[in-house]
């Protein structure tokens, strides 16, 4: 397993709920290294690039609107196998079904919330990570 880097976002719901520290603590506790960290007010152009694979899906527009709804914490995270490893820490996309012990499973709420309010984003492949790091940290 090689040293990788990935993009982690604490989405607007995670920042608004004061969960940034708890989420970053799990990343650090796992032994990953934070090599970049900033608070970002994303604009639509960035989000359209970030979520280009989802253009045209029914959840695309609500997802972009949600990501525009408040500040986001963007982090560059490095470690052995961190791309899959962070997605494992994050848990399944839908917080309702995400396993206990994961970020989405432990902090996700399902009372009337949408799937996009799932606290975090993590890149899903080395190619996505480089592309997304360019958008958020380029
Ligand atoms: P992930 O964030 O786990 O990589 P994804 O890339 O498939 O998931 O989707 C991007 C985001 O879009 C996801 O974090 C939440 C939202 N989303 C995905 N599937 C959805 C659905 N069926 N309904 C509503 N929102 C959805
Ligand atoms: Mg994804």
TrEMBL record:
InterPro entries: NDK-like_dom (IPR034907), NDK-like_dom_sf (IPR036850), Nucleoside_diP_kinase (IPR001564), Nucleoside_diP_kinase_AS (IPR023005)
GO molecular function: kinase activity
Enzyme Commission no: 2.7.4.6
Primary location: cytoplasm
Record: residues binding ATP: 11, 59, 87, 93, 104, 118
Cofactor: Mg(2+)
Function recorded in the entry: Major role in the synthesis of nucleoside triphosphates other than ATP. The ATP gamma phosphate is transferred to the NDP beta phosphate via a ping-pong mechanism, using a phosphorylated active-site intermediate.
Protein name stated in the entry: Nucleoside diphosphate kinase
Organism: Tersicoccus solisilvae
Chain's gene name: ndk
């Amino acid at each position: 397993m090689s040293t990788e880097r990935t993009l982690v976002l604490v989405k607007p719901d995670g920042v608004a709920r004061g969960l940034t520290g708890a989420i970053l603590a799990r990343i650090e506790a796992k032994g990953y290294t934070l090599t970049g960290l900033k608070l970002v007010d994303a604009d639509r152009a960035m989000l359209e690039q970030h979520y280009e694979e989802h253009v045209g899906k029914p959840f695309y527009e609500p997802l972009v609107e949600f990501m525009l709804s408040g500040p986001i914490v963007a982090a560059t995270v490095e470690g052995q196998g961190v791309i899959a490893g962070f997605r494992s820490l994050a848990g399944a996309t839908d917080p309702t079904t995400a396993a206990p012990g994961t970020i989405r499973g432990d902090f996700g709420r399902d009372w009337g919330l949408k799937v996009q309010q799932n606290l975090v984003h993590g890149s899903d492949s080395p190619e996505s990570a480089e592309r997304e790091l360019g958008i958020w940290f380029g």
